[in-house]
Specification:
Elements lengths: L1 H10 L8 H28 L19 H9 L6 H32 L5 H10 L9 H9 L14 H4 L6 H14 L2 H9 L4 H12 L1 H17 L2 H7 L7 H8 L7 H34 L3
Helix pairs in contact: 2-14, 3-14, 4-8, 4-11, 4-13, 11-14, 13-14
Length: 297
């Protein structure tokens, strides 16, 4: 009966009324969102309180009034360099994201639409690299970065170049772009561009890139978040320097015999804000990319 009413409302130009089933769907979705958003809210509550608030029973569930004081305390620590770490993380994440979008989409286009000898074998090798844990290559990567040419002869370890260069391209991005290009760019468009005299790079830029913008948005967000949250390798190559990334600076905040959690969580909240901004900015493109990937062309 409710379905007939909704159909009649649509025919008469009115908005259909929510059925009890759809209302429960909203309730469940709101509950899931609240469940996953609560840690972020609790982090903000602790960041706005004092040391004594942590010992309250029952604990406080409303934000306090000391958030700006805790933030000033975080930025005022001379041994952490938190402001510089945020700038470094933004610089590293931006460069690696732009590089991943360009090189991975270009390689994905080559694997998807170009015919060359050994294409399938190379793609298998790229996929197999995804099965190798990053931790297995840390020692080798540290040795390689230490032998890179530099002005002082000590290599790239301890510099942002050691963090940026290994993340300029990744196997997941190549595989993801290849699969998306296969399904979203018809071969007829590539052949038509070649008949018109377009070069391979011209075809990539004018035909492929406009068609894969949703996938680029998804890959860009994933790359930015991955680079921003990377901790192990920046800790190894930048630990102890005056120019760490935000995750390394947060570990410095949490070190010591006595940890001030209000200060640590204030820094963690500040380090989370850029990721939330990226999510809000690219949210529509992410949904569009997921929907286009689910629809058969």
């Amino acid at each position: 009966m409710s379905t007939r009413s909704n159909r009649r409302a649509l025919l008469m130009g009115r908005a259909p009324q929510d059925t009890p089933g759809s209302i429960w769907n909203y309730v469940v979705l709101v509950g899931i969102i609240a469940f996953f958003a609560f840690p972020l809210y609790w982090m903000f509550v602790i960041a706005t309180g004092t040391d004594a608030d942590l010992a309250n029973i029952p604990p406080k569930v409303l934000p306090g009034s000391r958030f700006l004081d805790n933030v000033r305390e975080v930025f005022g620590l001379s041994e952490v360099y938190f402001s510089a770490s945020l700038i470094n993380s933004f610089f590293v994440s931006t460069i690696t994201t732009v590089s991943v979008l360009f090189f991975c989409s270009l390689a994905g286009f080559a694997f998807a639409k170009l015919r060359f000898k050994g294409r399938n074998a190379l793609m298998v090798i790229v996929i197999l690299t995804l099965t190798v844990p990053n931790q297995l290559g840390i020692v080798a990567l540290y040795i390689v970065m230490g032998k890179m040419p530099s002005s002082d002869g000590t290599g790239w370890n301890g510099t942002l170049a050691a963090v940026i260069v290994p993340g300029l391209v990744n196997a997941f991005g190549v595989f993801y772009m290849r699969q998306f290009i296969i399904g979203s760019v018809p071969d007829e468009l590539i052949e038509a561009a070649r008949v018109d005299g377009a070069t391979t790079l011209r075809t990539y830029w004018s035909i492929v890139v406009p068609a894969i913008r949703p996938a680029l948005a998804v890959l860009g967000l994933l790359s930015f978040v991955t680079s921003w949250n990377d901790f192990q390798w920046p800790l190894i190559t930048l630990g102890g320097t005056e120019f760490p990334t935000s995750m390394v600076a947060l570990s410095d905040l949490a070190s010591g015999n006595y940890v001030l959690y209000r200060r640590v969580l204030a820094g963690a909240f500040l380090a989370t804000v850029p990721l939330l901004i990226m999510l809000f900015v690219g949210g529509k493109q992410i949904v569009r990319g997921i929907m286009e990937g689910a629809v058969k062309h």
